[in-house]
Sequence to fold (844 residues):
Amino acid sequence: MEQATAAPTPAAPLPARDLTTLLETIGARDGRLVHLERTPARPARHADWPSWADPALVAALAASGIPRPWTHQAQAADSLHTGHHTVIATGTGSGKSLAAWLPAVSDILSAQRAAHAEGTSHRISAHGRRPTALYLAPTKALAADQAAALDRLSARIEAVQAGTASASRPILRSSTCDGDTPLPERDWARAHADIVLTNPDFLHFSLLPGHERWARFLRSLRYVVVDECHAYRGVLGAHVALVLRRLLRLARRLSPDSPGPTVLAASATAAEPALTAARLIGAPPADVVAITDDGAPAGERALALWQPALIDPWGADPAVAAAVPDPDAGTPGAPAPPSPRRSATAEASEVLVDLLSAGAQALVFVRSRRSAEIVAEHARRILTRSGPPLADLADAVAAYRGGYLPEERRALETDLRQGRLRALATTNALELGIDVTGLDAVLIAGWPGTRVSLGQQAGRAGRAGSPGVAVLIASDNPLDAYLVHHPEDVLTAPEATVFDPVNPYVLAPHLCAAASEAPLREADLALFGLPDESLLADLAERGALRRRPAGWFWNAALPGRPQDLTTLRGDGPPEVPIVESASGTVIGTAPGASADSSLHAGAVYMHQGRAYLVEELTEEAAIVTPRLAVGYRTRARERSSVRILAERSAETWGDGLTWSLGSVEVTSQVTGYNKLALPRMEVVSQHTLDMPERVLPTAAVWWTIPLEACEAVGVVPARLPGALHGAEHASIGILPLLATCDRWDIGGLSTALHPQTMRPTVFVHDGAAGGAGFAERGHRAGARWLEATLDVVAQCRCATGCPSCIQSPKCGNNNEPLDKAGAIALLRLLAQAARSARSAPHAP
Fold:
């Protein structure tokens, strides 16, 4: 058994109050509640069990409290059972997984009964003919959660059958397989499992390259369940789409007489679900059935849009000062300018205490690991200072984030489910469908990046038909400021999921992997989105593939496996273990891509309220030492440059303004760090670091303005760097509204004279190798993007720039120089030129 940390004693619930009324009351102070959207309760709509559903399964579900399925569950299950690829896109907590298990488990049990009736159930061949199902989750935690649910269902099926006189009592065998699964358990799964629950990484690195050992399972594969498929966007989505296509291709090769597996994709409510699912599996959209009419009950919901009050940045509120700058709006490398508003994390901490005092159980979603630590610590401090009975709740508040060890996270999940924890401050690690029920409220500190994520996070409140409230608290950045004052953009239909499976940086290594699993043939070109054989020929010219009469083969003379040419979750450095120097104990992990800026020598690292000082960062680990009291925090400084590799599209607007899209190379380097004294986060010293350069080939959109055009609108050369810099920051802040990305997925650079364009230039680039489609979407939305950016900056009430308009939480240059008036002038010039070009008769 795992040794879990001691859980706090369950807090006695305080008198219940109307949480919506509470929010209206406290939100009226300083005009913080900008908008309140109420959604009425919705009754359940039920359907009958399909005629093909196995009776033992139906009885087991009834014993579990599911006497009848909801309409969307029955529709999706029936579509899947009849052989149609299906996507079910309904709300959080609507029981989407039942739509998959109903046909899969029914077929598995029915096949065993048929074999028993034929007298062949004891034969190995009969076992090999039993249908199998593969469940794919984006995280190990979600797969483990579903495995536990299947185990409970299997036990109920056995209990139901124990009370019958039938000699045939089929059993359901399931197994979880991931990178941590011991080899004997993998062997058992290959030989016996009816259902395997895993993640895309295990599929890519283990199951597909070892497909010969999985032949029994793959040959009988009838159903593939892709849970939380909306999570697969950007580069990760492209990788997963190609892994799924490799899986389906192999299954069809191993069982050529069958139509191949049928896929159920389970998604949050999203735009174009059929198109998204079709792109994931490489099928025509017409071949995918979309089930979107949600028959699950829902309690009354309220969504509040909330903007923290304006403050005196040099005021005396220590709780506010300690949280400035807002970690939700920044990453290591961000500056610490005075904020005109309370930070989203400080605001979330105090609203959380108000909700806890009303007896609510809540989650606080934050935008960074550091923010989870700060919100939990701040809330505990407020509760402790409040005295009894609120002080008794201090131990019932904790942080939950990536980087904790698995056993620590599982203990926190259990404590939340069982009520011992009343609140968790969490990153999006709890956004996906792990079974966390009974929550009354959700606070979302900072725009989560997409309306899909907003719906998923807000949907954690009021699950199982109960009422719930959610609060979106704006961080001090242009996008959040825009959204809380434009509820129509928050409440409109969710975005489409964007990913590009034909991105050559992503596709090439998957073609190599596929060729090693089975030779690539002409019929495979369409499956992988290839218009011709040119990419295969290029790989052959580079020595990766060999062409033979039977197809394209992986060059087995090369060292290593082709599956190791790429990782699904980014081609950057691997996770960095964080090791306590005295004991050698691993206390957590951090993303390798951000290790230079967050775990450099001299950095302060926080873990559940405890401070550690980083002694050394190597390729293997970060070595840290605990410190009882550290009176400062650290923030890295970076520099970057952009080199244009190829221009794919270029437009000329007006008097020589250009709007371009193409391939670029971004070079970045951490050059030092600042120490910031608590509580006011003032820079007290600067330190130099000698860190390696990081080079990123990617896609970018960029615009140039002739110097004379800048001077014509009053932006003389001395003002130009600040004006361009401000326009760049604001553009990056608004692009996520149009490109279905997170501002951390993109970056930018501005320069008064770029060595290639020889003009004032602003770049906005994708943050992933090869690009993720975000710059391309921004390029297509040129006029709308520029107009929205201009609107935010021009309407901001500040005089010279603030985090709500042209200051950026990501800036590596301390937000200097910045010129708000100059940025407005340049953005207005660009927006007018874009409108004119769009309305011209010759415009595309």
Q: What stands out?
A: The longest strand covers residues 632-653. The radius of gyration is 28 Å.
